[in-house]
Design a protein that fits this description.
The chain has seven helices and four strands, in the order H-H-E-E-E-H-H-E-H-H-H. It is an alpha+beta fold. A four-stranded mixed beta sheet has the order 3-2-1-4, sandwiched between helices.
């Protein structure tokens, strides 16, 4: 560990592997709100966050719990699957547009940027919902995975019902 007079300790969030400060600084320099996507053990969380000097300001949040309670996502279905991530991103885009925001920059944190993963499913939902986020078309999961056809047919119906409920609520 850095103990000497001339040595400097790393920031705690960097040493514990929670924050990449170089990537965060690049995102903050653009001065556009960040569309933050985090996948936990039980759900996908999507937030629109603005930088402020005394701390980040969260403008809007949609997570797996609100997807179930507000928009009718099935309680027996996973809230962190690819279709759930898509619906969560779609709901965030609709909420944010209602508040007057129309563009953002994707912030995936320390998650792996593998094409077709849940983070990019949420991004696809945001784009389909009308939020403009810089992206490449080849990173999205296939339409069958977004609809939930790889899980079972009832999930495909749940995705449509949830999207309709999001449209009606916003």
């Amino acid at each position: 560990m850095a103990q000497g007079r001339r040595q400097r300790r790393r920031y705690k969030r960097r040493s514990t592997g929670q924050t990449d400060y170089h990537r965060r600084l690049k995102l903050l320099r653009g001065e556009t709100p960040r569309a933050v996507v985090r996948v936990t053990n039980t759900q996908v969380i999507c937030q629109l966050v603005e930088y402020e000097s005394n701390g980040d300001k969260v403008l809007s949040v949609v997570d797996g719990k609100s997807l179930r309670s507000k928009y009718g996502w099935p309680s027996d279905a996973s809230a962190k699957s690819v279709p759930a991530a898509y619906c969560t991103g779609y709901a965030l885009a609709k909420q944010v547009q209602k508040a007057g925001h129309d563009e953002a920059v994707l912030d995936i944190g320390l998650a792996a940027s593998t094409p077709g993963n849940r983070v990019f499913a949420a991004l696809k939902g945001m784009i389909d919902g009308g939020l403009w986020v810089p992206h490449s078309e080849d990173i999205f999961p296939s339409d069958e995975r977004l609809a939930g056809a790889h899980i079972n047919d009832s999930i495909a119906g749940a995705v449509d019902k949830t999207k309709n409920a999001i449209e009606e609520a916003n």
